[in-house]
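Request from the bench team (R.T.):
"We need a structural guess for the complex before ordering more zinc ion. Sequence and SMILES attached. Just send the tokens back."

Command: build protein-zinc ion structure.
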Amino acid sequence: MPRCIAVDLGGTLLRVAEVNERAEIAWRASVPTANTGHPQHVLDQISELIDVHASHAVDGIAVAAPGPLDSRQGVVARIPTLKGWNDVPLRDALRTRFSLPVLVENDAIAAAVGQWRYGAGSGCDSLVYLTISTGIGGGIISDGRVVRGRRGFAGHFGHMLLDPRSSLRCACGHLGCFEAHASGSALDSQARLMSSQGSSKCQALWAQVVRDTQPAASHLALAARLGHEPSLRAWRKLGVRLAQGVVSIVHALDPERVILGGGVSQSYEWFEASLHEQLAQLLMPEFKSVTVIPAHELQDAGLLGVASLLMETIQS
Ligand SMILES: [Zn+2]
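Reply to R.T.: structure attached below.
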């Protein structure tokens, strides 16, 4: 049975697994991604993990990596959290080193494919997957096909312009992007303002949650569970902002499902109501049947997604 090595090249963690065509994982391993400024050190890490764990030959290597990533040329344009990762021809480097077919894909697109084939998108022909963490990225499946765009950059939803009059600056440098309003970073900014919000009781509760750590989105989830009204308000606001972005996506792409993944989506219970209220208000009647749901907890969505894309090319 065909099998491949699937690699999730993360900004902090490098995960490697052996996956067969039935999406069964024979082994998996991970190490902190070498951030030495020399991409070949990450290739060395992949080699070492394969040497230690793989007991038989594989038919190819599939890599999911952060974007922007030119999946047509197999070139990683940039990984902001890793030094030296600018215009790295990852596909050719791996092909040369391993003499195997190699496929390189954006990690959000890989996760979208994973959810489509094995998770919350099963049985669905058109879907959008949104990963909401530090930023907002995503992947599009339309009419049963993965949408990549000219160079594989499709799905950079985080930089849709949500509010041109906004004072919130995005990581891309512009004001008012979707991710400046609705990502984990936006929540982190809210958390930093929380110590002075609400009644003195609220402020005392917040101090108790944060203690001597840097206020962050995770504290907003903890505080919400304790009934901290300013945190609950921050989550409601996030739901409204998310809906505003999702509405544009739905009107543009007409998906059957929008699947919300990424760390922020694990706090779905705190923004579910405001998200759906706002969606109900803003969607045109013809689009209201779209389903907006959290992703399935699928630790290996990206690995399985990218492996399945490679399997297709090997078998065709
Ligand atoms: Zn932006």
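Two things stood out. The mean pLDDT is 96. The CA atoms of residues 47 and 98 lie 9 Å apart.
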